[in-house]
């Protein structure tokens, strides 16, 4: 059972997930790093009838899904099952490879960095990844720092698991960015009156 769940961790290989919204309050830890963040969308990943995690995307005004690597945002995964950190890293790398070829040395380096950062998780724990444009990714567990992978190329491909147009789960991507346009429009200057 554990192996099946681990394989499902970052992909709904059968395309089975829900897009229902649940009550989501902005995590307190985002107040410091993304003070104007709003919820852009949510989705629940399901695999063979088992809920794996609930994903929430928090974006600041001006976020563009097409140019997500240039935007500060947070992707929060609330796990609904227990997983080993090594399995999270391994599955993440497999999903990253779906976006395009990775150099073997680079892939090994990224997997080692993810294994060092990603902890074993229990059901109900949250792992939040924060994209820092031009810097890399910061990871938190339930609001507490786990570590940073200071590599913008890593951050682009890692968050691309969910946000790239090359994602293996385009419907999940659509659910996560469903309100991003609304958030972006809230900051557009109003046209001057004639």
How is this structure best described in words?
This protein is of the alpha+beta class and 194 residues long. It is 32% helix and 25% strand. The chain is built from seven helices and seven strands. The protein has a seven-stranded antiparallel beta sheet with strand order 1-2-3-4-5-6-7. β2 and β3 (50-59) form a beta hairpin. α3 runs antiparallel to α4 (104-117) and α3 crosses α5 (152-163). The radius of gyration is 16 Å and the shape is globular. 37% of the residues are buried. The model is unreliable at 1-23 and 187-194 (pLDDT under 50).
Q: Report the principal-axis shape.
A: globular
Helix content: 25-40%
Strand pairing plus helix content: what structural class?
alpha+beta
Counted beta strands: 7
Spatial gap, N to C terminus: 66 Å
Q: What does the average pLDDT come to?
A: 85
Query: C-alpha Rg, in Å?
Result: 16 Å
Instruction: Give the helix tally.
Output: 7
Q: Report the sheet-strand fraction.
A: 15-25%
Low-confidence stretches: 1-23, 187-194
Strand line-up of the largest beta sheet: 1-2-3-4-5-6-7
Helix-strand string: HEHEEEHHEEEHHH
Biggest sheet, open or closed, and with what strands and sense?
7 strands, antiparallel
């Amino acid at each position: 059972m554990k192996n099946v769940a681990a394989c499902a961790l970052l992909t709904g290989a059968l395309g089975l997930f829900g897009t229902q919204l649940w009550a989501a309050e902005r995590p307190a830890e985002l107040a410091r790093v993304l003070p104007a963040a709003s919820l852009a969308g949510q989705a629940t990943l399901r695999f063979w009838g088992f809920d794996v995690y609930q994903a929430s995307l928090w974006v600041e005004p001006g976020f563009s899904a097409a140019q997500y690597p240039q935007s500060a945002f947070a992707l929060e995964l609330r796990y609904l099952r227990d997983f080993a950190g090594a399995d999270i890293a391994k599955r993440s790398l497999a999903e990253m490879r779906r976006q395009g070829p990775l150099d073997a040395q680079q892939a090994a380096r990224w997997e080692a960095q993810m294994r060092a950062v990603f902890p074993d998780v229990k059901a109900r724990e949250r792992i939040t990844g924060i994209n820092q444009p031009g810097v890399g990714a910061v990871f938190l567990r339930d609001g507490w720092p786990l570590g940073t992978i200071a590599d913008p190329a890593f951050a682009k491909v890692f968050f691309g698991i969910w946000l790239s147009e090359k994602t293996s789960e385009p419907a999940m991507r659509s659910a996560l960015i469903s309100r991003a346009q609304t958030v972006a429009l809230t900051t557009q200057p109003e046209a001057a009156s004639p």
